[in-house]
Write a structure and sequence with these properties.
By secondary structure, the chain is mainly alpha-helical. The protein contains 9 helices and 5 strands; from the N terminus they run ααααααββααβββα.
Length: about 270
């Protein structure tokens, strides 16, 4: 069990990282506060939990920042949120990981510690694989196709796939699972299972995004978007999908599927 002093040091490190991310534009103010909470929990759970979270955040931030202007120009009409990550995005991506760390930290788990670590790693790998799929596909500017209609859709549309994006998803899952092992969070024997779980979560994200994620319509531009207020300034109207199922909720479900798959594959 981590000591109180270790938890205090870990929370202090999380505060420094969150502040740096806010100052560099990777996180909004609310995102930095959410990162402080999730990071503080992970750091308090032990160095291996904290190290993997930091490594994941650096990887995701770099992927987002590479070619950011070109990617924002390509997706600005479609995606609900751009720029720094806010609190909802931080919790959607890292909430399940922090929950697994917290359960292990408090000793409330009936599951063995290796299984909890595997589930937490898989949740974060799923979020990272989904991010890298999106960023890779957008950067390559290939024409994605919808899983729902099988037709081409604008770049940045949720529930769409492209060859570069799929390659980025698989490579990201394998790389992040290997990083989890290097950080000491999971043994080498669990790397492929965690990578598979991450791919399962990212794939579920795409399927849910294609069939059930809320879509809105801009009456001024006469085009579909995920934005409640379109980039043109016009208020949009719900047109299909589940009204409350936003991209943040879909991202949270991605991590839940990743953790759940790891639970099914993990040790007992």
């Amino acid at each position: 069990m981590p000591t109180l002093a270790g938890a205090a040091i870990g929370t202090g490190l999380a505060a420094i990282i969150a502040l740096a991310a806010w100052r560099t534009g990777s996180l909004s103010r609310s995102g930095a506060l959410a990162a402080l909470l999730t990071g503080g929990i992970a750091m308090s759970a032990g160095a291996r939990w904290g190290a993997f979270l930091v490594g994941w955040f650096v990887t995701a931030s770099l992927a987002t920042r590479i070619g950011r202007r070109a990617k924002e120009a390509a997706t600005g009409d479609v995606v609900a949120k751009g720029g720094p990550r806010d609190a909802a995005q931080v919790f959607a991506n890292g909430g399940v990981y922090a929950a697994c760390a917290l359960v292990g930290l408090t000793g409330l788990a009936s599951a063995p510690s290796p299984l909890l670590a595997m589930m937490g790693a898989a949740a974060l790998v799923a979020a990272g694989a989904d991010t890298l799929a999106t960023e890779t596909g957008t950067l390559w500017r290939g024409q994605p196709w919808s899983l729902r209609t099988f037709g081409t859709v604008p770049t940045g549309t949720s529930g769409a796939m492209s060859a570069p994006g799929t390659a980025g998803m698989v490579a990201g899952a394998l790389g992040l699972a290997a990083l989890a092992h290097l950080c000491g969070l999971i043994p080498r024997a669990h790397v492929l299972a965690v990578a598979y779980s991450g791919i399962a979560g990212a794939t579920a994200d795409t399927l849910i995004g294609a069939w059930w994620q809320a879509r809105r319509w801009c009456p001024a531009c006469e085009r579909e978007t995920e934005q409640s207020v379109h980039r043109c300034g016009a208020a949009t109207q719900w047109c299909r999908g589940v009204a409350w199922l936003s991209n943040d909720v879909v991202n949270l479900l991605c991590t839940v599927v990743g953790a759940g798959t790891a639970w099914m594959l993990g040790p007992r």
